[in-house]
Amino acid sequence: MSGIPVVGLFRCASYERNILGERLDALLESMGGMDRFVHPGERVLLKPNLLSASLPGRCITTHPEVVRAVALRVLAAGGRPFIADSPGLDGFSGVASKTGMAEVARELNISCEELDDPVPLPMAEGSVFQRVEVSRKAVEADRIINLPKLKTHAQMMLTLGVKNLFGTVVRQRKASWHYTVGLDRDVFADLHLDIARSLAPSLTIMDGIEGMEGRGPGNGHPRHFGLLAASTDPLALDLRLCSLLGADLQAFPLYRSAARRNLLPENIGKTGGDLPPDFTFEKVDIPRLDSLHLLPSFLDGIGKRFLSSRPVQRPGDCIGCGKCARLCPAGAMVMKKNNFIDIDYEKCIRCYCCQEVCPEDAIGFSRGFLLRVLDFLGR
């Protein structure tokens, strides 16, 4: 199947079922057809991005029409699909309902399940992390079809195919990984890459019809990209999309991790679809990432204080829900009276989970002093 592209990129104007179905069929045909990836009787995990209990129009989660369309084609191939994720922010039943996944499952008579019951993941050769636990349902599925959302990410720049598989880590253990990784984005990218390589999804199909730019993954701005993309290699997909979005590959932690480990896919430029070869999206608002490890690790305290951005509360926007304090991996935030948040910056690990979970975008960033000086000198 040498004619199959490494990455398929197809325009798709909307989630209207006829339009989406025709475009998805074209995309799947370019990749060899759904029969290439699903055999009769196989139990197939459909892994969308279900970050929080958010309506589809906010572009925080994979659109239910994409999940529905893929599930129908898995059923037609004889597979037994089920929709599952482990949301990091809200209870699963509320997430499934608000995002439209529960309705898709009811319509198609398939299950919509929480990824629970953590078990050790058999790690791919060359993994940096030798012990990672993910949901048993992900480990035991016959196939995984990865269904990410095209979004920016304040901590990791972009959250696409590879990072979506971090969602197989069971709820409370995500916070533990944030705390363990601490300041180093490249180490966090190593973890994401290890999980993706070890789970080895049969196919990744990205919902980029309506995506997110700015301070994603939860508080950015919706943007129409009109794109469906797919690959058998989520890393190849992510790196191609990084270029397509006009982002700097060298600034992308996932790229740096793959390059350092000699894991960069070959023939990333072997792209199929109906986009011009030199096409890029114009003026995408990509988060600027701090260089958290310009100093040796024993000087992390200085790096946090002077190099990294720190979270700050916008009191006028805060509704006092307390999500940031409850979900802070480092226990660095305490909710006080009158919706005031006390932040201990010595404990803060700059994971930006507080910004990610805030439903009102009431957490902003204050850039470190040296970074502000560099910004001024660079003008």
How would you explain this protein's 3D organization?
With 379 residues, this protein is an alpha/beta fold. It has 2 domains: 267 residues, Rossmann fold, CATH 3.40.50; 81 residues, Alpha-Beta Plaits. Helix content is 32%, strand content 21%. The strands form 4 sheets. Strands 1, 2, 3, 4, 7, 8, 9, 10, 11 and 12 form a 10-stranded mixed beta sheet that branches. Strands 5-6 form a two-stranded antiparallel ribbon. The chain has a two-stranded antiparallel sheet with strand order 13-16. Helix 1 packs across helix 2. The longest helix has 15 residues.
Net shape: globular
Number of strands: 16
Please indicate the percent range of residues in DSSP E strands (runs of 2 or more).
Answer: 15-25%
Count of runs of 4 or more consecutive helical residues: 14
Residue-averaged pLDDT, rounded?
Answer: 88
- Roughly how many Å apart are the termini? 50 Å
Per the CATH scheme, the topology name of the largest domain is Rossmann fold
- The helix fraction, in percent, is 25-40%
Total number of distinct structural domains: 2
How are helices and strands ordered from N to C? EHEHEHHEEEHEEEHHHEEHHEHEHEEHEH
Write the CATH architecture name of the largest domain. Answer: 3-Layer(aba) Sandwich
What integer value in Å does the Rg equal? Answer: 20 Å
Reported for the largest beta sheet, the result is: 10 strands, mixed
Class of secondary structure makeup: alpha/beta
Classified by CATH, the class of the largest domain is Alpha Beta
Low-confidence stretches: 292-300, 369-379
